[in-house]
Write a structure and sequence with these properties.
By secondary structure, this protein is α+β, with helices and mostly antiparallel strands. The chain has helices spanning 17-20, 30-36, 43-46, 61-76, 109-113, 125-138, 153-163, 188-201, 211-226, 267-274, 325-335, 358-366, 381-389, and strands at 4-5, 10-11, 81-82, 88-95, 98-108, 117-118, 140-141, 145-149, 169-172, 179-185, 205-209, 239-246, 252-253, 255-259, 278-282, 296-301, 304-310, 349-353, 372-375, 400-401, 412-413.
């Protein structure tokens, strides 16, 4: 079971919540961030390189110093204010007619270390180290991680009692048109009951988005524990901020691939090589073809869209990893034909979130930047859970959750 606690969030006053909130640090580059950031935007804290002219190296000491200074300044100006008591919070996101409701809480670092918080992706030490620096210098979790948990009717009931009230925050983001609402769970009985339910009835958290931030938070907690001779386990650094959604409310969208070359093959030779493992059907070139079922792929090559369906016997539906379309695509196309090597480090492939649409795949090929694009059928939440429960790891860039958590609605101090 998982250990959670409420916390006194550092957050914006209601009137400026939209101005302060921002997209996550890792979904945009520095130039895009500079264009988006208004005066009060959290991007001045999460991407402070934008405050330099020209834009500075995001890993330089002056940029780290600026992040700390801005976080302090935002609090001095009253743009971020700490709640007077420890609470839980409800965060609702709306996208394309669908709304998901998550509870904002503090998860326990030991739960990550012992595997109660389950991951489905490998992390890179350099990225963990970078996130650790930000937690250390701010002594806070500035941005939340995104968890799923097995749905629980009683937690739902508590959340929906608060959702019936007027929200603390309620706005539509200009960048993407997604809706964001936020409520404060401040009743002591509800707070105590939520803590009990997670401790007694929720067997695990599943990292949906934020593997590196989760690992970094756990490492900072372990580091602070090692440096505190009076450590007793109740310290705030033993916890980190997460937004946790019931698994039955979440939807994973496609995460697609574009490649720079065909490993010396012509388009005709490449199509011929694919015939060994796929049934190929050329589609109308006038509109993108979207995969319609598991083990069906879309390919854009030479101005044409193709349907690729993996032949029986080329995959194993009884293997939680082998059943994944990312595995099939990697094994039968990227390894067998294109010889791309490690997809996490290869410079010959790039990954495109499905939120950008199939038109983005076409654009990148038509521009000459890439030579071919592959769209995949989305992974299901049940597939993700099966993989995490069995201790397996998904291939890189398998899941894309949307909408992304808005940063700046709550911050967790480690003090």
């Amino acid at each position: 079971m998982v250990k959670v606690k409420p916390f006194a969030a550092i957050r914006p006053p209601k009137a400026i919540s939209k101005e302060v909130s921002a997209r996550p640090y890792d979904v945009m580059n520095s130039v895009e961030a500079a264009a988006e950031a208004g005066e009060k935007s959290l991007l001045h804290i999460t991407k402070p390189e934008i405050d330099f002219n020209p834009i500075a190296d995001e890993h330089s000491q002056p940029v780290y110093d600026k992040a700390v200074a801005n976080f302090k300044l935002w609090q001095e100006r009253g743009w971020l204010v700490r709640d007077k008591k420890e609470c839980y919070y409800v965060y609702a996101q709306s996208m394309e007619g669908r709304t998901q409701y998550g509870i904002v809480l503090c998860a326990n670092t030991e739960d990550y270390m012992n595997g109660t918080i389950k991951k489905h992706e490998l992390t890179r030490k350099d990225k963990e180290d970078d996130r650790m620096i930000h937690v250390r210098i701010q002594n806070a979790n500035i941005e939340p991680v995104f968890f799923a948990y097995p749905d629980n009717a009683e937690i739902d009931a508590i959340m929906f009692r608060y959702i019936a009230r007027v929200p603390e925050y309620d706005f539509i983001a200009d960048e993407d048109g997604f809706g964001h609402k936020f409520w404060v769970i401040d009743d002591d009985k509800d707070i105590a009951r939520i803590t009990e339910i997670f401790a007694n009835d929720v067997p695990a958290f599943y990292v949906a988005d934020g593997h590196h931030r989760t690992a970094a938070a756990a490492r900072v907690g372990a580091e602070k524990k090692g440096n505190n001779p009076n450590h007793n386990g109740t310290e705030e650094y033993n916890y980190f901020m997460a937004v946790c959604f019931p698994d039955n409310q979440l939807k994973i969208i496609d995460y697609n691939r574009v490649v720079k070359d065909l490993n010396g093959l012509s388009a005709e030779q490449f199509l011929k090589a694919l015939e060994a493992d796929f049934t190929i059907e050329q589609k109308c070139s006038c509109e993108p073809y979207k995969p319609c079922t598991l083990h069906n792929f879309s390919m854009y090559l030479g101005g044409n869209w193709y349907s690729l369906t993996a032949k029986p016997g080329t995959y194993d539906d009884n293997d939680p990893i082998g059943v994944l379309d990312v595995t099939i695509c990697s094994n039968l196309i990227f390894d067998k034909i294109l010889n791309l090597g490690d997809l996490r480090t290869s410079k010959r492939i790039d990954f495109v979130g499905g939120i950008r649409g199939l038109g983005e795949l076409k654009r990148r090929v038509d521009s000459g930047e890439m030579v071919a694009a592959f769209a995949l059928y989305p992974v299901s939440m049940q597939q993700l859970i099966n993989i995490a429960d069995t201790g397996n790891i998904m291939p890189p860039k398998t899941t894309w959750f949307e909408p992304k958590l808005r940063s700046g609605l709550a911050i967790h101090s480690l003090d």
